[in-house]
Design a protein that fits this description.
Number of strands: 10
Oligomer: single chain
Number of domains: 1
Strand content: 15-25%
Strand order of the largest sheet: 1-3-6-7-2-8-10-9
Structural class: alpha/beta
Shape: globular
Length: 316
């Protein structure tokens, strides 16, 4: 038995329930699919913000609902619940749903969003691949985010991967070879590529000293990458406005501390030196490189934002 060609013992299709009323819709065939699955890294809470913006701002209805009881380890990622004086309410159960959505111009697309499975990755990936083939999806585009030693004063970059050169070349601001912890999106991309399906993934770069708080500008960048890849008009104005407020608050904090300003200046210098020409691949420090110590900046910025009324909130 070849373990690299593992086949799930249980039927992948039994992981989800289909909305039978939608299956006959002609506009489900050949459209693009976006994936925004939380649970991996999610620096700046980018994926969570993107999922919220798409589901709250665009019209949509479920095509397939996954059985999260088979996929989620509740004790490792406990759902939230509200306790008010002497009552419990608002239990937020995990979800994983494939929606049919419509963008601002009326263009339909599919959105797979929700919690990353803790269990049954092979079976889940087969299930998603089966849905991609069933609807003859044209392109699968997904997004996640990673903390990077970059300043907030420079354009937000991304590392792009997949099998569509026209969507990759000239975009990645960092290229290297390394072993990394995998996410379900990585496995899905590998499976889709092996099946000959178009797929592209965007790892948005978030300043590492801002990675623990919501950073709307990075979410806007993620939406722009997804929208451009899938030819969709995606909503971003609320995030842009929130991003402007956050950037003003950060600027005030930097201006109020010479130590913080020095750290940002060092990051800017490093970024500018390493992004000249082909040096973009060196954004991550190697074994002999030293990054500016941004711990003080991160703590100061986070404390400052937390002290402001209406400041960005941490994701759940």
């Amino acid at each position: 038995m070849n373990v690299t060609e593992y086949t799930p013992f249980h039927d992948p299709e039994s992981l989800y329930v289909l909305n039978e009323e939608l299956l006959a819709a002609e506009d489900l065939k050949g459209i693009n699919l976006l994936m925004s699955i939380t649970g991996f890294s999610d620096a700046g809470h980018v994926v969570n913000q993107i999922s919220t913006e798409l589901t709250e701002q665009l019209a949509g209805e479920p095509v397939a609902i996954f059985d999260v009881d088979q996929l989620v380890d509740y004790r490792s990622r406990r759902p939230r619940v509200t306790f008010t004086e002497d009552r419990l309410s608002d239990y937020r159960a995990p979800t994983l749903v494939l929606h049919r959505m419509v963008d601002a111009l009326g263009t339909p697309f599919l959105l797979l969003s929700g919690h990353e499975p803790d269990l049954q990755w092979e079976r889940f990936s087969r299930a998603v691949l089966g849905l991609v083939e069933r609807f003859d999806v044209n392109l699968v585009a997904w997004v996640h985010s990673v903390p990077m030693p970059v300043p907030h004063t420079r354009p937000i970059g991304a590392t792009v991967h997949g099998n569509r050169p026209d969507l990759i070349e000239g975009i990645s601001t960092w290229k290297t070879t390394m072993d990394i912890p995998s996410a379900i999106g990585h496995l899905l991309e590998i499976k889709l590529d092996a099946a000959g399906r178009n797929v592209v993934g965007y790892a948005v770069h978030v300043p590492h000293y801002l990675s623990d708080a919501e950073y709307p500008p990075a979410a806007v960048a993620g939406l722009e990458y997804l929208g451009a890849a899938a030819s969709l008009m995606l909503p971003s104005e609320r995030l842009r406005e929130a991003g402007r407020a956050v950037e003003r608050q950060i600027a005030e904090q930097v201006e109020g501390s010479s130590d913080v300003a020095a750290v940002v200046a060092n990051l800017e210098k490093q970024y500018d030196e390493r992004t000249e020409g082909t040096a973009r691949r060196s954004l991550l420090a190697g074994e002999n490189d030293e990054l500016p110590d941004a711990d003080e900046l991160g703590a100061a910025v986070e404390a400052y934002l937390a002290s402001r009324d209406g400041g960005p909130q941490r994701g759940a």
